[in-house]
Design a protein that fits this description.
Blueprint (H helix, E strand, L loop, with lengths): L14 E3 L6 E3 L4 E8 L5 E8 L2 E6 L4 E16 L4 E4 L4 E4 L4 E18 L3
Length: about 120
């Protein structure tokens, strides 16, 4: 029987990384991911992501979408055309498949995320 994935009842091990050097724009922020859920076939993951201030270029693959909602801190996402949006606590966004631009952490951030990856 499938069970609920209640974040407050879980203590997943953190995974740490940094943006790839070829994508860095500023800083070298430590990123921490707490994956609370991964579907059986691996196409859906959800959890909490945290990051220090810094900026890097992002390029989402075809078939990959992300929903997020900021818990604390502030970020700015700028698309390839230079249009940007800022997000703070309680604000949410979807980064769509094939999106490219810059992801900037203005203030140390924590956010809920849900990532869906489908075959293109």
């Amino acid at each position: 029987m499938a069970k609920l994935s209640v974040f407050s009842r879980q203590q997943p091990q953190p995974a740490y990384d940094h943006p790839r050097p070829d994508r860095l724009v500023s800083g070298n922020p430590l990123r921490t991911t707490f994956e609370h859920f991964l579907s059986a076939n691996g196409d859906l993951s959800a959890g909490i992501w945290a990051c220090e201030p810094g900026a890097w270029r992002i390029a989402f693959a075809e078939g990959k979408d992300e929903f997020f909602c900021v818990i604390e801190g502030r970020i700015r996402i700028t698309d390839a055309d230079g249009e940007s949006a800022e997000f703070g606590p309680g604000e949410a966004c979807i980064i769509p498949s094939t999106f490219s631009g810059t992801f900037e952490v203005l203030e140390s951030v924590r956010k809920y995320y849900v990532v869906m990856e489908r075959a293109p």
